[in-house]
Amino acid sequence: MVREKYSEIALQDKATNATSCCGAGSSGTYTIMSDSYTDLPGYHPDADLGLGCGLPTEFANIQEGDTVLDLGSGAGNDCFVARAKTGATGKVIGVDFTPVMVHLARQNAEKLGHNNVEFRQGDIEELPVTDQSIDVVVSNCVLNLVPDKAKVLHEIMRVLRPGGHFSVADVVITGHLPDPLRNAAEMYAGCVSGAMQMPDYLALIEQAGFANIVVQKQKPILIPDNILLDYLQPEALKEFVQSGVGIFSITVYAEKSEVPHAKQSKPKVTLQELALSKPCCEPGSGCC
């Protein structure tokens, strides 16, 4: 369902997407979450479909020459902004599981002449990326669309080099959504009903083995009543507003340790220690 919805959005321009707060239909919550990229170096309007919920590239501490991976790269917007930071000596890889989005992103890269930006079709739960080959991972409002978020974090850990880091913008909630919102497929594709509780989200990152976890930015997301009324009766809407449930966009930073615990090994044995150790068999037996 998510693939179909975002395939539909990819074929429309940003203005069409923005007219309904959603790229595909009379309701939804896509563009009401997005921040403006207009003044950022590398920004390419044709790649901006207004589908993000933050500016992770601005918080990701990308350096010239870095290799950057964007999860759920869409039409390439964050990749092109990241490329402006890595420069010609760096490399940017975008992964998206929607074929239409990948095709659109490749067209945009061709227009810009960026030969160090590439787009791969794949599932971010099983990234088509080599182990320990990435300096920085970014993602903009995508992890909430993935059923197995722990697996995505495991994949991020796998592809990051020791000392690498990520900056991810995502949607989280505090409190509990009413069942009609939580069960709505449209709200899932719009990144709301798939959102985790904020403490659980941060705990999942820690459990994956990441260090120095920081919430770099947090902003409330206010869904207009006219959209909520597509899912809730007026009385239920009133209860929801009074419940104190919060929907937030957060940008989270975390690092992979320089020496991951899983990589630590026992100290090497010196030649002297080896000479003093007990032989594996008796001298003269011919087995050694």
Tell me the fraction of residues in β-strands, as a range.
15-25%
Mean pLDDT: 78
Work out the helix count.
12
SS elements, strand count: 8
* Helical percentage: 25-40%
Overall, the morphology is: globular
**Main structural class:** alpha/beta
Terminal-residue CA separation: 63 Å
Top-tier CATH class: Alpha Beta
Radius of gyration: 23 Å
- The unreliable regions are 18-30, 262-288
Main beta sheet: strand number and arrangement?
8 strands, mixed
CATH architecture annotation: 3-Layer(aba) Sandwich
CATH topology: Rossmann fold
The number of domains is 1
Name the CATH superfamily assignment: Vaccinia Virus protein VP39
Give helix and strand order, one letter per element, not per position: HHHEHEHEEHEHHEHEHHEH
Topology:
Blueprint: H1 2-10, H2 14-18, H3 56-59, E1 67-71, H4 77-86, E2 91-96, H5 99-112, E3 117-121, E4 134-140, H6 149-159, E5 160-174, H7 179-182, H8 185-189, E6 196-197, H9 198-207, E7 211-220, H10 225-228, H11 234-242, E8 246-255, H12 271-276
Parallel strand pairs: 1-2, 1-4, 2-3, 4-5, 5-6
Antiparallel strand pairs: 5-8, 7-8
Give a verbal description of the structure.
With 288 residues, the protein is α/β, with parallel strands linked by helices. It has one domain: Vaccinia Virus protein VP39 (Rossmann fold, 3-Layer(aba) Sandwich). Helix content is 32%, strand content 21%. The chain has 12 helices and 8 strands. The chain has helices spanning 2-10, 14-18, 56-59, 77-86, 99-112, 149-159, 179-182, 185-189, 198-207, 225-228, 234-242, 271-276, and strands at residues 67-71, 91-96, 117-121, 134-140, 160-174, 196-197, 211-220, 246-255. Strands 1, 2, 3, 4, 5, 6, 7 and 8 form an 8-stranded mixed β-sheet that branches. The chain is globular, with a radius of gyration of 23 Å.
